[in-house]
Amino acid sequence: MAVSIRLARFGAKKKPFYRIVAADSRFPKEGRSIERLGLYDPRTEPVMVRLNMERIQYWFDQGAKASKTVSALIEKHKKGLQDTTDGEKD
Q1: Rounded distance, CA 46 to CA 57, Å?
Q2: How far apart are CA 26 and CA 77, in angstroms?
Q3: Which residue among 10, 19, 65, 76 is the one 20 to 30 A from 44 at the CA level?
């Protein structure tokens, strides 16, 4: 079973929000998923991204591949965490 970490679209018409899920790559985009790993809401200001990095790392260790969009969100999240810790140095 090839697992992919990708976005699943939810929300009303023209008001989308996305769940970041681990799913079998053969399942449809809004279909069944194995596990919910986070949320992404591009409509809020600032954009809301919540990720369960422990579970994402677990799925990467199991051989899962992330979509381009999810990879970018993960990289921004990691960079944001590093920026907040670096900014507190005196």
Answers
A1: 25
A2: 27
A3: 65
pTM: 0.80
One pLDDT digit (tens) per residue for the chain, 90 residues:
689 999 999 999 999 999 999 998 887 777 788 999 999 998 988 888 899 999 999 999 999 999 999 999 999 888 877 654 444 444
Contacting residues for 47 by C-beta, under 8 A, at least 6 apart: 40, 41
List domains and CATH numbers for the chain: 3-86 (3.30.1320.10)
From CA 8, how far away is CA 70, in angstroms rounded?
11
Distances (CA, A) of 1 to 19, 21, 24, 57: 21, 15, 6, 18
